[in-house]
Design goal:
The protein has one helix at 44-49, and strands at residues 7-18, 24-41, 55-63, 73-76, 79-88, 95-103. It is mostly beta strands. It has a single domain, classed as Beta Barrel (Thrombin, subunit H), CATH 2.40.10.270. The longest helix has 6 residues, at 44-49.
């Protein structure tokens, strides 16, 4: 698995800060940059239903990471993806497979 991890991805998490007039302002910041194995997939259930939208789907494998949760975003090659879920790759809790969706309409500012 380690040999396939040739891509760099950023784990991005949302934080909230107080603005100039006391309002809460959400911001996204890079929590960590990690080595990953990135693979674009074509979900067969969407293709069969003819429900292909303006989105790309990815599976990303990284080492187990405490900075990642379901509200995180992933940046890969300057593209942003939302995390749809994740699971263990091995029974030793060493690697995590992340299911991600890149919406071509979504804008994330950091």
């Amino acid at each position: 698995m380690i040999g396939k991890m040739r891509d760099r991805v950023d784990i991005i998490n949302k934080t909230e800060a107080l603005g100039d007039i006391g309002q809460i302002t959400p911001t996204w910041s890079v929590t960590e940059t990690v080595w990953a194995w990135v693979k674009q997939i074509n979900p067969s259930f969407l293709l069969a239903a003819g429900n292909v939208k303006n989105q790309k789907y990815y599976e990303i494998v990284i080492r187990d990471n405490t900075n990642l949760d379901i509200s995180s975003k992933i940046r890969y090659n300057s593209q942003y993806m939302r995390v749809d879920g994740f699971s263990e790759v091995t029974n030793k809790d060493e690697f995590i497979k992340i299911k991600c969706v890149q919406s071509l309409n979504e804008v994330v500012t950091i």
